Automatic annotation (TrEMBL):
Protein name: Alpha/beta hydrolase
GO molecular function: aminopeptidase activity
The keyword NADP is annotated on this UniProt entry: no
Record-linked PANTHER family: HYDROLASE, PUTATIVE (AFU_ORTHOLOGUE AFUA_2G14860)-RELATED, MONOACYLGLYCEROL LIPASE
Length: 277
């Protein structure tokens, strides 16, 4: 299904199930919806699930501009398209940050915020160096190949996919790297290509945002917020502590044996934590 944003951009979206609406915001920036395993879990628990590819990503029209405000407006366009007054908003990774910004801008349209595998509201410098070390360790014996691909100024589509699969394999928990590679391959299938311009522009913008201002704004949120972490996420989970402390109505669930995509590795526990109540 195609949703038209307020500036005419075409956004891919899909609705499944009947019940309380849950809208999903995928990670990135510059990636696409990877919730094909999560959506049926939530439908089974009585949710109407809305999936969509963010502007310029996946099956949506590859066109800018790329900004947090533009992304927030696109969420609102999808919500209105499906005729929903309010939704549970679930965001993963970058999508968790985006969902938070939407909740701050439009609290009247969010009944509950589910913040999954995010990196908080503090500066990247607080968590990124540790993340890089864990990423390199997680890639393991294929690190040299990943470094070679990442250092190239130009890559073929196949090389870009290979680089991403190697990098994403570090996002899964446990010592079985063969299993991690298989799960990363599944994430990359079908392959839509990373929008690196979108990634660069939005990341540059979020790095300039004031932690103090975000902390103060979060203090005004009244809807319930659930923070969900995988205990083995390579992004340090203490990066989220300041966000948790800023929110007045928050609970936190940490899933053992799960990395950055906890619904893939602990599906039943994840669905129990985030399904409509």
């Amino acid at each position: 299904m195609t949703v038209k944003a307020d500036d005419g951009a075409q956004l891919w979206a899909e609705r499944s199930g009947e019940g309380d609406p849950v809208m999903l915001c995928h990670g990135g920036p510059g990636l696409w919806d990877t919730f094909e395993d999560l959506a049926p879990l939530l439908v089974e628990r009585g949710a109407a699930v809305l999936r969509w590819d963010q502007r310029g990503c996946g099956r949506s029209e590859r066109r800018g501009p790329y900004s947090v405000a533009r992304s927030v407006a696109d969420i609102d366009a999808v919500r209105r398209h499906f005729g929903l007054e309010a939704v549970t908003l679930l965001g993963h990774s970058w999508g968790a940050r985006l969902a938070l910004h939407y909740a701050l801008a439009h609290p009247e349209h969010v009944t509950r915020l589910v913040y999954v595998s995010g990196t908080g509201i503090g500066p990247d410098s607080g968590w990124h160096p540790e993340f890089v070390g864990r990423l390199r360790a997680g890639i393991g014996e294929r690190l040299a190949r990943w470094e070679e691909l990442a250092s190239r100024e130009r890559r073929t589509e196949a090389e870009e996919r290979e680089m991403c699969v190697l990098q994403w394999s570090a996002d899964f928990a446990g010592p079985d790297r063969g299993r991690a590679l298989r799960l990363a391959e599944r994430m990359a299938t079908p392959w839509y290509g990373v929008n690196f311009a979108c990634n660069a522009e939005i990341n540059a913008e979020t790095r300039t945002m004031s932690e103090h201002q975000l902390h103060a704004a979060c203090g005004g949120l009244r809807m319930p917020v659930v923070i969900v972490d995988g205990a083995e996420d390579i992004r340090p989970r203490d990066a989220v502590d300041s966000l948790e402390q800023a929110l007045p109505n928050v609970s936190r669930v940490t899933l053992a044996g799960a990395g950055h995509m906890p619904w893939v590795e602990r599906p039943a526990e994840f669905a129990a934590a985030v399904a409509p109540r």
